[in-house]
Design a protein that fits this description.
This protein is an alpha+beta fold. The protein contains 10 helices and 5 strands, in the order αααααβαααββββαα. The strands form 2 sheets. A 3-stranded antiparallel beta sheet has the order 1-5-2. It has a two-stranded antiparallel sheet with strand order 3-4.
Length: 290
C-alpha cells in the first residue's frame, strides 16, 4: 500500500481530474472561451463586445473539499461524510487531500463535525491518590486511540496506570453495548483529574507545634469519542501520517465487520434457542392436556 499510495499521490499532484468519478469531491473547470483566441483588444468596439461575451462565461468554481454533506458515512461506521465505501476509496481520498493540501478546510466545519460525533463518558470517583500525580497518567493517555492508550499504559510505571486503563476499557465496553463501536474506532478525547473531598488530618511538627495536612482524593473524567477518519486524514501533514491513519481505518473496518458477524451469529443462536424452548413448552402443554 505504501508504494501505490505514494505513486498515486505523485500522479495526482500533477493532475487531479479523474480521482473521483462518483464522489462529491470534484474540481470543475470552465470551458475555454474561443473569443480570447480569435480576437484582440485593439478597438473600443471590440473591447466592449469581448466584455459582453465574457460576462456570459460561467464563473470558475474554486476547489474545495466537501465534508459537509448529510449523507451517511462509511468510513468505519462513523456518522459523517465523506463516503469511504472501501479501503480503495480511502486511499483515493488521502491522495486527493495530499494533492490539494494547500486548500484548507475551515475550522468551523471541523468543529461542527466534532460536535456531531458520538461520545461516551466514563469516570472513577474518590481515588486515594493525589490529583496532580493522577493527572500525569491521564495526560499520558489523552489524544491516543483506545488500543494505543491501553498499550502505552501497560508499560507506564505509575501506580494508578492500571486504574486508568480499567476506566478506558469499561467506557469502551459501554460504547460497544450502546452502538457497537469497537476499541479501534474510538479515541481518548478527554482524560483529566479533578479534586475530590480531601480529609484533614493533624500534622505533628517540631518544638511542640502542630499543623494540618490533607489526605488527598481525586476523580477521573474520561470521554471516548468515535474517530472521524476523514478529518484525521485531512489534518495529517505528511504522507506517513496519512498512511498510518489509513492503516488504522483498515483495522477499524475489519474489527467492526468481525463484531457484526459475531453479533448476527449470536442473535441467530438466541432465536433458535427461543424456538426450541417454545416448541418444548407446547409439547408439555399438549401432554398435560391429554
Amino acid at each position: 500500500m505504501a508504494q501505490s499510495l505514494t505513486s498515486r499521490m505523485s500522479r495526482l499532484a500533477i493532475s487531479t481530474r479523474n480521482i473521483f468519478t462518483s464522489s462529491s469531491l470534484s474540481i470543475s473547470k470552465p470551458n475555454p472561451s474561443p473569443i480570447l483566441s480569435s480576437c484582440s483588444l485593439r478597438t473600443p468596439l471590440m473591447h466592449t463586445n469581448i466584455l459582453r461575451s465574457l460576462s456570459t462565461i460561467p464563473k470558475l468554481q474554486t476547489r474545495t473539499i466537501d465534508i459537509t454533506n448529510n449523507s451517511p458515512d462509511f468510513g468505519a461506521t462513523s456518522t459523517l461524510p465523506p463516503l469511504l465505501h472501501s479501503q480503495r476509496d480511502a486511499e483515493n481520498f488521502a491522495a486527493f487531500v495530499h494533492a490539494n493540501k494547500h486548500h484548507k478546510v475551515k475550522p468551523f466545519i471541523l468543529k461542527r463535525r466534532r460536535h456531531h460525533l458520538k461520545s461516551y463518558i466514563g469516570n472513577e470517583k474518590n481515588i486515594r491518590h493525589s490529583p496532580w500525580r493522577m493527572n500525569l497518567v491521564c495526560q499520558f493517555a489523552h489524544g491516543l486511540t483506545v488500543p494505543e492508550a491501553l498499550k502505552q499504559l501497560m508499560f507506564c510505571q505509575k501506580v494508578k496506570a492500571p486504574l486508568v486503563a480499567k476506566v478506558i476499557r469499561r467506557t469502551a465496553n459501554l460504547a460497544d453495548i450502546r452502538d457497537g463501536f469497537q476499541p479501534s474506532q474510538l479515541e481518548v478525547s478527554e482524560c483529566f483529574t479533578t479534586h475530590g473531598t480531601h480529609l484533614k488530618r493533624l500534622k505533628i511538627m517540631g518544638r511542640g507545634r502542630s499543623g494540618k495536612k490533607l489526605r488527598r482524593f481525586s476523580h477521573i473524567r474520561l470521554v471516548l469519542r468515535e474517530i472521524d477518519f476523514p478529518t484525521k486524514i485531512l489534518e495529517a501533514t505528511s504522507i506517513n501520517q496519512k498512511r498510518k491513519w489509513l492503516e488504522r481505518l483498515a483495522i477499524a473496518r475489519e474489527d467492526y465487520e468481525k463484531a457484526r458477524v459475531e453479533k448476527e451469529e449470536l442473535e441467530e443462536l438466541e432465536r433458535l434457542a427461543a424456538e426450541v424452548a417454545e416448541k418444548q413448552r407446547k409439547e408439555k402443554e399438549a401432554e398435560s392436556a391429554k
